[in-house]
Each structure stands twice: as structure tokens, then as C-alpha cells.
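# nightly structure sweep
# worker-07 picked up a monomer target from the shared queue
# config: single-sequence mode, recycle default, output format = C-alpha cells
# input follows
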Amino acid sequence: MNPNTRLQLSFMMFLEYFIWGAWYVSANTYMVTNLHATGSQVSYAYMALAVATMISPFFVGMIADRYFSAQKIMGVLHLVGAATLYLTTITSNTYVFIGVVLFYSLLYMPTIALSNSIAFRHLSDPGRTFPAIRMFGTIGWIVAGLLIGYLSIEKTAYTFDIAAGASSILAFFSFFSLPDTPPQAKSDVSASQALGTEAFVLFRDRSYLVFFISAVLICIPLSFYYGFANLFLNEAGMKNAAGKMILGQLSEALFILAIPLLLGRIGVKKMLLLGMTAWVVRYIFFAYGNSGDHLWMLYAGIILHGVCYDFFFVTGYMYTENKAGEKIKSAAQGLFTFATYGLGMVIGTLFSGRVADFFTLNGVREWQQIWMVPVYIAVVVMLYFALAFRDRQTNTNLK
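# output follows
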């Protein structure tokens, strides 16, 4: 592969996830501090990305891939997105803010698929080279967290300004520097194909259906972390919380390397159970941790993000691809993403916001009670999965 192309794709991934990491992690803290938002209002803002995840397959599959060069539509989306991010900084109305975040999410989420599409089209051996390119996305998220934490601005609108600036840079980079990626699709793509409904045939397999239901339900505990972790850590007294939370991304990058080895030793079921067990342990640490003698629990809860995400969701994507086979694997991955990061996160964000409000009295949140709710949910999902899932595949089957 041309070294210049590799550099272009790496920088694209870096900016793509730098933008997301710059505002997303600390948006809950910003909303509570500056807009005096309730837990439910915070959850509505975070639900915006889940809604956008459900809609973006239509945009990418039915419009962008058929009529436009990928890098051009990516540039337009990021340019309009930059202006939209700026609008979040000049409103003091919580519901206007939520509406702006929703509109921005509808612009941003399709660029995830577009960036992947651009990369895959220009890599001679995607299976070998894409992970290294995608790693720059994780680095971008980490750098954003370190920058926000170092500048101590996670409670201010400057996080959105930084994200808007990076979005503008990526827009112009897309227009003038990314390699041309013309539309490739020749035939019409139906709404059902864009959603991945062809993969419904997988539900005939009882074990896969059990896994699929568990994956949707485990997104409820996941929503608590995304929606309220930064706010909790700040209120718990952790200094530079946004900077400390990048330990979760570092652990994600580390634990993903353990998946091939562990799959071969313990199989799919135990691997997925380890991931679910990590959710239980993480939230117990958050429930009983503090910035004093139990500060280590807060750090442990952050670091467990790698086990929570990699062992369940990354393994889940691999399991889904293996079950689907070559013919419907794209549809199956689309359906899994739609159901988890779309439907599951919508349910989870709405529920977590109401839980946060229920355990808030006179503006004071009872974090121990809040965090024990996802503990109970994760335990129930884990027991259901352990008793109902029967597939005993190992990594020898997960090609």
C-alpha cells in the first residue's frame, strides 16, 4: 500500500474518533453543570446517538453508497457538523441543546461507516492492515480525553469548540486530501436490506436468539456508563476525570489482543459470560468506590471497560459473523449493530435517566443506589444467558 495513502487513512481515523471523544464523554457533566439538566434530560441527549445509529444504515446503504463519492459526502457531513457543534455552545435551553445534539448525531453517525468504507476500498489487504489503521481512531479518542483533562475544561463549552474545530479540519481534509472513493453499488438497496432483516433467519438457531436477546439487554447497563460515568466521577471528587477515563480505551486496546487466545481455551459461552461478569464487578466498584480510601475501585471500574466491551461485543461480532456465513454476514452485522447500539441503547438511555432521577433528592444523587441497578440487571442477563445458551464453539470455528 502507498505510504501516503496509509498516512491519509490513519489521520482520517484519528480525527474521526477525536471529534467523538472530545464532547461525548463529558457532555453529561456539561449539561448538569451549565444547563441544570435532570438525569432524564441527560439520557435524551445520549439517546440521540442511538437513534442516529438506527437511521444511519438507510443513509449509507440507500443514498451515500449509490450516488456520491464517500469522501465528498463525508466532508459535507463534517462541515455541517462543525457548525452544529458550535450551536450547542450558544444555547442555554436544555431541550434546544438536546435537539441540536440529535441533529448533530444524525450527521456524525453515518461518517463512521463512511470512514470504514473509504479505508477498506483503499487497503490492498484489509484483514491485515485495517486494524492498524483503525487503532489511530482509538488513539484519537485517547488524545481528546487527555487534552480535555489537561486543560480542565470538561465542565465547559470548550469541549464542543474543540470538537467543532476538529470536525472542520476533517471536512477540508476529506475534500482535498482523502483518496477518491466513488460510489460502487449498482443495484437498488431496499429498506429491509439496509436494516439487515435478511439475517432474521439466524433466529431459528436457539442459541443465537438467546445471545441476541442478551446483547440487547446488556446495553441497559452499558447506557449507565456512557450516560453518567463522567458526571459520577466528577461528583465523587476524582480530579481530571475525563483524562482518567481514557484508561478504559487503553484497556480496550489491550484486552482485544487476548480474545484469540482465550477463545481457543474457554470457548464462546465462557468468553461472553466473562464479559457480562465484568459489567457486574465494574458497577459494584462504582457503587462502593470513592475518592478516598476506595479510589482504587474507581480506577478498576474504568479499566474494566476493556473486558466489558471486548469480551462481549467484539466476541459477539465474531460470533455473529461465524453464524451468518458469507452470504448474509453484512446483513447480520448490520442487524446486530441496529439492535444493540440502536434499539438497546435507546431503551438503556431512557431507563438510566429515570433511575438517576429517582435516586436524586434536592439535587444530590445517591450514586450507590444508582449503580446497583445496572448490577442487578447485568446479573439477571448473565443468569439467563448461562442457563439458556447452549452453543459450545471455540475460536477454531470463528474464522
